[in-house]
């Protein structure tokens, strides 16, 4: 006897509801497992960092207090740092503005929404009453002895600051706007629940070498957990400067790479026929150890501090008045690491590593401009990194925010105008930039290798870059490069010949012909009015 249709429908509905419930439960279970995995990563990271620091010091749960007088009297290289005698070192709580402010400036003295003082603290001094910075011994292998990076100027933290600047790099200005417009409470504290790193990294011996890492905080990914006692017990605002997550990457060229046979889906790194990739991402904000940065550039710390103060509009007076503070969070962009394959293999000297170090070019990387080789080289670097990971090695692409050779997009477009309104010849390529900016390049690759040290990288098997500056900076930091891989000719857009030929003549790596000055003068770019030829790079399989 058959089941009536109505009963069948009811049964089907029950089955569907049960399947939905199972799906929801599975999703929740997966989320819970991921959350547990994140906490395990943090616990593992904390244990390994503490184990690396050694026995008894690892058990310390609070940071020592440094007395202001001790700071004031201790002899150090601070003598070379220019000091300002313009204001007395009074108690921080008594600092105030003019006793009779003008009506136009009265609003500046309004108290903050957090109930803090209305007095504007323009700067501080080492010997000032109330100033008690948390210790910062950059390069110490014990995180509790080294101390956290503390930069907040909130009411509960300003006395404990051991760093100059602000979190967020260039985005710190938007934070200020959010505070000014009451979009965020000035005393807001982040809830770090479930934000733990999605992959474990380090610790490596390079983390405790103050000459190898000077432009980022090696403990930046663990800060809220390493220094939780200080946050909870002393009410100090401590934030991470590194975050690690997992993601999928999908670019239109990668689908073509699969169709052309250059990439083969394996379900692990290259996930499917659309060229979707599995990737682990590391976001890093800059944290500068000023003595180390100065040494890297061959200048004294005082000269560096003075230049940073003067050429940021005097925005950071503590660069001058606080010679005891050695850490600076500059208002610049950071970097992102894209790791293909197992992140643990990046530091494994027994497996091969393919690396692309790429400096930002928004016009090409995002919007496909063909005046340069930036996007083609980026895509090529990703492809080669993926292939290395699929062969059991590691593939890494590091993306630095250094738009327009760190000259900025406005300067870059002015250079483009000068090129296209004149004779856009390769022989004049660098001169156009120098005429406007006064310099060819401000990317300063001297700080770039720090991220390689942080990742534990000790050698590079395939360097997917032609830049002599990047090569020399990496090798100069003791990391050998076994093979340099240039961008294949078939990937070079026609209008970017001016750029690439000029760079090769200036010292970029090539296994091919290096042009003479006469040949270089004959390389001419497309004018605005010229018809566009097939400017995208070839997609035929490469050997």
UniProtKB/TrEMBL annotation:
A matching Pfam family: GTP_CH_N
GO BP term, pick one: riboflavin biosynthetic process
GO molecular function: GTP binding; GTP cyclohydrolase II activity
Keywords: GTP-binding, Hydrolase, Nucleotide-binding
Source species, domain of life: Eukaryota
Segment forming the signal sequence: none
Stretches the record annotates as Disordered: 51-120
Domain GTP cyclohydrolase N-terminal per the UniProt entry, residue ranges: 119-311
Domain GTP cyclohydrolase II: 352-485
NCBIfam families documented for this protein: PRK07198.1
Family: Belongs to the GTP cyclohydrolase II family.
Protein name per the record: Related to GTP cyclohydrolase II
Organism the protein comes from: Rhynchosporium graminicola
Lineage: Eukaryota, Fungi, Dikarya, Ascomycota, Pezizomycotina
């Amino acid at each position: 006897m058959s089941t009536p249709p109505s009963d069948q429908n009811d049964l089907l509905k029950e089955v569907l509801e049960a399947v939905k419930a199972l799906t929801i439960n599975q999703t929740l279970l997966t989320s819970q497992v991921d959350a547990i995995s994140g906490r395990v990563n943090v616990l593992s990271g904390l244990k390994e960092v503490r184990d690396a620091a050694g026995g008894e010091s690892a058990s310390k749960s609070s940071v020592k207090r440094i007395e202001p007088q001790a700071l004031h009297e201790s002899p150090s290289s601070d003598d070379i740092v220019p000091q300002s005698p313009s204001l007395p070192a009074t108690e921080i709580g008594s600092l105030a503005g003019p006793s009779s402010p003008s009506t136009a400036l009265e609003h500046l003295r309004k108290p903050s929404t957090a109930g803090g003082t209305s007095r504007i603290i323009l700067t501080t001094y080492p010997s000032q009453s109330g100033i008690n910075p948390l210790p910062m011994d950059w390069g110490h292998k014990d995180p509790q002895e080294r101390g956290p990076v503390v930069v907040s100027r909130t009411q509960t933290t300003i006395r404990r600051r051991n760093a100059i600047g602000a979190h967020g790099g260039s985005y710190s200005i938007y934070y200020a706007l959010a505070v000014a417009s009451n979009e965020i409470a000035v005393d807001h504290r982040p809830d770090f629940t479930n934000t733990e790193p999605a992959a474990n990294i380090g610790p490596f011996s390079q983390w405790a070498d103050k000459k190898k890492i000077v432009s980022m905080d090696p403990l930046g990914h663990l800060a809220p957990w390493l220094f939780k006692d200080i946050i909870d017990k002393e009410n100090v605002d401590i934030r991470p400067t590194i975050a690690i997550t997992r993601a999928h990457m999908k670019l239109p060229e990668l689908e073509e790479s699969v169709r052309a046979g250059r990439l083969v889906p394996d379900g692990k790194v290259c996930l499917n026929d659309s060229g979707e990739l599995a990737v682990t991402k590391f976001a890093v904000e800059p944290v500068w150890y000023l003595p180390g940065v100065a040494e890297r550039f061959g200048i004294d710390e005082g000269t560096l501090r003075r230049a940073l103060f003067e050429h940021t509009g005097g925005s950071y007076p503590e660069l001058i008045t606080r010679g005891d503070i050695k850490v600076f969070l500059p208002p610049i962009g950071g970097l992102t690491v894209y790791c293909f394959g197992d992140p643990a293999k990046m530091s494994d000297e027994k497996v091969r590593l393919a690396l692309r170090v790429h400096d930002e070019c928004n016009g090409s990387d995002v919007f496909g401009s063909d005046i340069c080789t930036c996007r083609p080289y980026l895509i090529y670097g990703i492809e080669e990194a993926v292939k290395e990971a699929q062969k059991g090695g590691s593939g890494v692409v590091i993306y630095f925010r250094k738009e327009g050779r760190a000259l900025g997009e406005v300067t870059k477009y002015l250079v483009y105008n000068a090129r296209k309104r004149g004779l856009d010849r390769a022989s004049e390529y660098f001169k156009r930039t120098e005429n406007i900016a006064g310099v060819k390049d401000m990317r300063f690759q001297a700080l770039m290798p720090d991220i390689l040290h942080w990742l534990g990288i000790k050698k590079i098997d395939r360097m997917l870059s032609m830049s002599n500056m990047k090569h020399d900076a990496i090798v100069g930091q003791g990391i050998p490069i076994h093979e340099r891989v240039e961008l294949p000719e078939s990937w070079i857009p026609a209008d970017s010949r001016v750029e690439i030929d000029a760079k090769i003549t200036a010292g970029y790596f090539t296994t091919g012909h290096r042009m003479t000055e006469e040949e270089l003068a004959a390389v001419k770019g497309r004018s605005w009015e010229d018809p566009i030829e097939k400017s995208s790079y070839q997609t035929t399989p490469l050997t």
